[in-house]
Amino acid sequence: MNDSKIARINELYKKSKAEGLTEAEREEQAILRQEFVASVRKNLKSQLDNIDIQNADGSVENLGEKYGNKSAN
Questions:
Q1: SS3 label, residue 1
Q2: Where does this chain mainly localize (predicted)?
Q3: Strand, helix or coil at 5?
């Protein structure tokens, strides 16, 4: 998700509060929001997959490997 798309989401939000949106703008807003949420989820999953934890016995486990590291989403 690039900055121009985020700026467009914000523009549409402000316009919806000020004067309302056309049907096409509402559809565009919904699509952009879905893209944004998907991007946030992908980034969070990537971060979580790269966490290593140290067990009591001193061994280190990668959570992505332990819980499947399903990057095909």
A1: coil
A2: cytoplasm
A3: helix
Mean pLDDT, the chain, rounded, equals 90
Nearest to 34 by CA among 70, 68, 1: 1
3-state secondary structure 10-73: HHHHHHHHHCCCCHHHHHHHHHHHHHHHHHHHHHHHHHHHCCEEECCCCCEEEHHHHCCCCCCC
**Comparing C-alpha atoms, which of 22, 11, 62, 21 is closest to residue 3?**
11
Domain positions in the chain? 3-66
- pLDDT tops 60 at residue 72: no
pLDDT over 90 percentage in the chain: 73
